Amino acid sequence: MGSRMKKSIAQQLNTADIRVSNSLTNDDIKTEVAKKGYTEAKLLEGQALHTTAKDAVNKAVARDGDAKKATDYEINCKAEAHKAYQDLAQIARAKYTPKSPELATLGLNGREPIGTAAFIKAGYVLFDNAASDSKIGADLLVNGYTPEFITSERAKIETYENANKAQVTAIGNALKATEEQRAALKAMNAWVSEYTKIAKVALRSDKKLLEKIDIFTGKRYNPKKDAGTESAVVPQS
């Protein structure tokens, strides 16, 4: 391939961690990179960017999980609400003639609304008017629609409405967390990119120090081979 595949988020975080942590804990590296402007304070800035990015990634993963759970719950609530609506609507249409005042009162002159907001509104009309209209209430009683049952079926519409609101909020939070993750990774990777270039200059005379911060300019350093024992050179990954 002409270009390297983009690193995964885990690889990006790992690269930043190695660059910064090993630079901070190795006095030789700290001394040399400081001469090129990367003092301990500058390295700590990179460490802070790595921490921020890692926290942002963890938050994005959590928010994405919340959104998936909210969506699954919303789907279940939607199914329950539609079943409750359709059951009562079908019974009412079986009892009353088309264009009857009863069907008009129940909001059943047309088809079941498709959109979420329209359906929820229609659901409230159906169950609220079934409960408040004495004639309709008496007619439906024989079909098992007691006042208590109508109230419990109406509650499914309300549960669906609340689940839908929660889903919208959860998805919004997930999108925001993803944007924050993207910004944090961009800032971290920009720091790593510049530091990598500077470190290559500062440590060019000692490849072993470069390898300690995961920068390889040729064959990887092999302690056994450098000591004179037979050993294969570790291939580049």
Write the layout of secondary structure elements.
Elements: H1 9-25, H2 27-35, H3 40-95, H4 101-105, H5 116-132, H6 134-141, H7 147-202, H8 207-212, H9 223-226
Helix pairs in contact: 1-3, 1-7, 3-7, 5-6, 5-7
Task: Provide structural commentary.
With 237 residues, the chain is mainly alpha-helical. The protein has one domain (9-213). It has nine helices and no strands. It has helices spanning 9-25, 27-35, 40-95, 101-105, 116-132, 134-141, 147-202, 207-212, 223-226. Helix 3 (40-95) packs antiparallel against helix 7. The longest helix has 56 residues, at 40-95. The radius of gyration is 32 Å and the shape is rod-shaped. Residues 228-237 have low confidence and may be disordered.
- Secondary structure: helix percent: over 70%
Shape descriptor reads rod-shaped
Specify the structural class: mainly alpha
Largest sheet: none
Gyration radius, in Å? 32 Å
Unreliable residue runs:
228-237
Strand tally: 0
